[in-house]
Amino acid sequence: MNLFPKFDPRSISLETAPDPAKPAKPAKVVTQAPQNTQTLATLATLAGADVDSTEFEERVAIIQYDGEIPEEWAEGLAQLCTMPCPEGVTESRWRQAVNNAGRFADAWAAKASALGWTALDIFGVDRYRPEASIHTAGLIWLLQDKRIVAISADAVIVETPNGARQSFRPSIDGNDASRRVLLWELAD
To answer: Beta-carbon neighbour count of residue 138 at 10 Å?
Structure first.
């Protein structure tokens, strides 16, 4: 007696064939804010380039009106895109911060502003030790290679490259508030 008979393809009729497999359901994805066609990240490719006042004002307008973000943030972001890497910051860390600021402006700045986040909460950094002091750093400086997946009035949820989720909550220690400046003020 043969316990494992050979497979005979003729033994299966088409009428009794099982239903085809159903396609898998797509994974749940946290909906992100819509992307603008003219991104700040694109404008950031000219970082460190000399621009005249007309070109600067045009950048501010694109960031402010297309991104629907506050004028103060738009002016700072336009300045950030054109300024060189400040002293005390590595070139790679600076480029990463500028790119993070651009991605944030494209996808989350309007919502963050509407929820009451301040410029220092988002773009703050320690004036004297930007790379060493994380307790005075804002969201953009702390993002590094993480991506934002959700934002509320009191927290931002970020995802690390390996999929772990972390939350960022703004907190200002009164003693350190005087040390905080905006990223675009590091050149001063």
So the answer is: 22
Does residue 10 form part of some domain?
A: no
- Measure the CA–CA gap between 176 and 154, rounded to whole angstroms: 20
**Locate tokens 């506050």: which residue?**
70
In one-letter notation, the amino acid at residue 34 is P
Q: For the chain, 188 residues long, give each residue's pLDDT as a single digit of tens.
A: 444 445 454 544 445 555 555 555 554 333 444 444 344 444 444 444 455 677 767 777 677 667 678 888 888 888 888 889 998 899 999 999 999 998 998 889 999 999 999 999 999 998 888 887 777 889 999 999 999 999 999 999 999 999 999 999 886 555 566 788 999 998 76
Residue 96 counted as domain residue: yes
Helical spans, DSSP H, in the chain? 40-43, 53-61, 67, 71-82, 91-107, 109-114, 119-123, 139-143
Q: Is residue 1 part of a domain?
A: no
Is-contact 81 46, C-beta < 8 A?
Answer: yes
Domain residue limits at 106? 37-185
State the total domains in the chain: 1
Q: Which amino acid, 169?
A: R
CA torsion angle 50 129 181 107 (round to 10): 70
The SS3 assignment for 183 reads helix
Domain membership of residue 157 (yes or no) is: yes
